């Protein structure tokens, strides 16, 4: 049984990841009742963009230069995509 | 927000400032209204045939019942006139919604796609043209054909503005450029040919603290942008905190796919910018 104060920690989203925040995985179309671990990364409906989250340094010379390192992102980098947004969402005075 | 079907039928424009969920519900209501209009068109068509039947009855009276021949002639005239009026009315009633059905279907698909990442509390502003609102641009001689002329017009039929969950403001417009060619063929018949192209423009204005400087992404964006076969990039601008992409789509059927791919392409670059910005923090 799901605890009453539970909120789903999974990443969802079509264009960019954001926290799911649902209070129960039951009937969830994103994780299909908790069966999909990372609904954002495991989507298969991004037409033309099969490797949506992967970046080749050769394709992004400007970005690689700005990063000062190859574009081999780690899990922590992926988490950065979600965390700042949580702060934004929490701040209701923002824009 | 409930739609005013009659206003939509006569005015041919859907405008709303409401949450995306409500806009999606409206797109469904427009579909229902179109189905209602289709039923009215069928009814008018049937009534037209009935009126023609009355006209035929008039002919029978005029020919076979001589004392009532005048009544018969009047019935014939009234029946034909009424039938023609009803058929014209049946053809025109809610025709715009039938012709431009694909436009509110596209709005439904676009809304459903944007909804996945949009802030549900922030209303979107939508304007959808459901009739030909073409603005005349120019007319010129088309020398390749006898008495050839080509006339250009443009119709800004969709604009939608809103905000994503990450604070990015999105603005999208779709414009149709129509070319109408008229000429006389070798057999002396007048011909009219239409061709249209659609231009989708998307502007994303991003929170600087989240995405940082976007300009270094321009080259990568140009390299990695994917579009359907009938779509081509007509403009790409990457500013400090905003990106703008304009795409020409030759096949209207490719509009939903082109639309989704534009957002995906832009956001793939923005996600990279955000990860780079996260590293620097």
In short:
With 95 residues, chain A is mainly alpha-helical. Chain A has helices spanning 61-67, 75-90, and strands at 11-12, 18-19. Chain A has a domain at 8-44 and 82-87.
Would you mind describing this structure in some detail?
The complex is a heterodimer of chains A (95) and B (281). Chain A has a two-stranded antiparallel ribbon. Chain A contains two helices and two strands, in the order ββαα. Chain A has a domain at 8-44 and 82-87. Mean pLDDT of chain A is 75; it is low at 84-95. In chain A, 24% of the residues lie in helices and 4% in strands. With 281 residues, chain B is α+β, with helices and mostly antiparallel strands. Chain B has two domains: 36-92; 132-280, Yope Regulator, Chain: A. Chain B has eight helices and eight strands; from the N terminus they run αβααααβββββααββα. In chain B, strands 1, 2, 3, 4, 5, 6, 7 and 8 form an eight-stranded antiparallel sheet that branches. In chain B, β7 (231-238) and β8 form a beta hairpin. The mean pLDDT of chain B is 92. The interface between A and B is large, with 34 and 41 residues.
Please indicate the percent range of residues of chain B in DSSP E strands (runs of 2 or more).
25-35%
* Uncertain residue segments of chain B: none
Instruction: Give the SSE order of chain B as H and E letters.
Output: HEHHHHEEEEEHHEEH
Strand order of the largest sheet of chain A: 1-2
Give the strand tally of chain A: 2
Determine the oligomeric state from the structure: heterodimer
Q: What fraction of the residues of chain A are assigned to beta strands by DSSP?
A: under 5%
Query: For the terminal residues of chain A, how far apart are their CA atoms?
Result: 38 Å
Largest sheet of chain A: 2 strands, antiparallel
Mean pLDDT of chain A: 75
Assign a percent range to the helix content of chain A.
10-25%
CATH class category name of the largest domain in chain B? Alpha Beta
- Any idea of the CATH topology of the largest domain in chain B? Yope Regulator, Chain: A
């Amino acid at each position: 049984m799901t605890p009453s104060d539970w909120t789903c920690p999974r990443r969802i989203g079509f264009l960019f990841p954001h926290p799911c925040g649902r209070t129960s995985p039951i009937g969830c179309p994103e994780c299909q009742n908790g069966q999909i671990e990372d609904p954002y990364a495991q989507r298969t409906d991004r037409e033309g963009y099969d490797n949506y989250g992967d970046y080749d340094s050769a394709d992004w010379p400007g970005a690689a230069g700005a990063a000062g390192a190859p574009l081999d992102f780690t899990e922590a980098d992926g988490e950065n995509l979600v965390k700042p947004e949580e702060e934004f969402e929490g701040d209701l005075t923002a824009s | 927000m409930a739609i005013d079907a009659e206003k939509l039928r006569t005015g041919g424009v859907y405008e709303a400032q409401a949450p995306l969920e409500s806009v999606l519900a409206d797109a469904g209501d427009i579909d229902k209204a179109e189905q209602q209009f289709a039923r009215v068109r069928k009814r008018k068509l049937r009534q037209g045939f009935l009126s023609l039947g009355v006209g035929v009855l008039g002919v029978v009276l005029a020919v076979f019942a001589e004392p009532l021949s005048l009544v018969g002639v009047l019935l014939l005239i009234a029946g034909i006139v009424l039938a023609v009026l009803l058929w014209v009315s049946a053809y025109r009633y809610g025709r715009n919604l039938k012709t431009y059905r694909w436009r509110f279907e596209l709005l439904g698909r676009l809304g459903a796609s944007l909804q996945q990442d949009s802030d549900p509390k922030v209303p979107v502003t939508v304007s959808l043209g459901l009739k030909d609102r073409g603005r005349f641009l120019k007319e010129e001689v088309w020398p390749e054909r006898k008495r050839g002329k080509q006339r250009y017009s443009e119709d800004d039929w969709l604009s939608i503005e809103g905000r994503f969950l990450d604070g990015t403001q999105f603005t999208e417009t779709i414009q149709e450029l129509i070319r109408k060619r008229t000429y006389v063929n070798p057999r002396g018949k007048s011909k009219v040919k239409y061709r249209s192209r659609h231009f989708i423009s998307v502007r994303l204005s991003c929170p600087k603290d989240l995405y940082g400087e976007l300009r270094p992404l321009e080259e990568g964006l140009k390299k990695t942008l994917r579009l359907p076969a009938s779509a081509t990039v007509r403009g790409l601008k990457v500013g400090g905190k905003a990106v703008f992409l304009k795409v020409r789509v030759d096949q209207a059927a490719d509009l939903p796919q082109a639309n989704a791919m534009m957002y995906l392409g832009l956001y793939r670059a923005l996600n990279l910018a955000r990860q780079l910005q996260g590293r620097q923090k």
